[in-house]
Write a structure and sequence with these properties.
Its cofactor is FMN. The chain has 342 residues and is an all-alpha fold. It is globular, with a radius of gyration of 20 Å. It has helices at 17-27, 29-39, 42-64, 69-73, 77-88, 95-108, 123-134, 136-139, 154-162, 175-181, 187-193, 205-221, 228-244, 256-260, 265-272, 283-303, 310-326.
Length: 342
Amino acid sequence: MALMRVTSPHAHGPLSTSAVMQQVLLATVPGVLVLTAFFGFGTLVNIAFAALLAVSFEALALKLRGRPPGFYLGDCSALVTAVLLGIALPPYSPWWLIAVGIAAAILMAKHLYGGLGYNPFNPAMVGYVVLLISFPVQMTSWAPPRGAGEVPGLLEALRACFTPGSFDAITMATPLDVLKQNDALLVRDLWAQSPQFGRWAGLGWEWANLAFLAGGLWLLYRRIFTWHAPVAMLAVIALMAALFYDGGSSASGGSPLFHLLSGATMFGAFFIVTDPVTSAVSVRGRLVYGALVGLLVYLIRVFGNYPDAVAFAVLIMNFAAPFIDQYTQPRTYGHAGTGDGK
């Protein structure tokens, strides 16, 4: 009798892989709606086109590998990768930028290593970093949020994606970039002079982060993942920001609330760091993993060359996840501790 060969992750009943992926997709809805409200339809167009490409690349890769496309497409993992990358990309990205990112995520970061369960790196973050390193101008061209400039409509968003040469997009630096480049103004003066800033963080960004926080808390309530990695990441970011805030001088790195509600902080904490395949799996390992991601995010944001560093921090820690698990395994029941975490 021939047995079906199915790779990890394994789950049954209400927590099957497809059910988990569908709940993750549902949890992104509040954040996507807020991004659409403040930045226009660009994020929705990104997601729709990325999803179409992701399913196509997934089916092609499965066919080339001799796997049944219908069975593996049903786990919705390709759609999750597409949605996460579509959210991370700047609104009104050209179609070729989305295509390159999805190809890198699905073909290189996922199927090159054997598919879902074998990939050592988060596919969406691999796609994002490939684009950021290769096309830095396009990847840092964010549209101004509602209240700081005009927000294009749906037709303009479609034109920007599929006929980018016919659409003159107005872009501006993100709040993280503005604060990073500041070397003369006090934080309160910079806040007053720059239209990018809102009440606590960037205009629009703060509400998007709160929306992704709400989606993440819902996933916690549904027990899709545990609290350890996201809470550790956010706690370390807040601690580092508090240590280096210095009251708001021109050399300040920004307040804890600013860092928690800026960029991809909440999105990364609840939708990227919690990836069960590429993160640490032991309880103490998740705490260490999340804390180190938070530390790297802050260090790269403030002292590195990239204002928002979630993707780089996650990929660096994907390297370290097996090492962290090796030294944070729980003690076997009935055996004395050896002092090395086992």
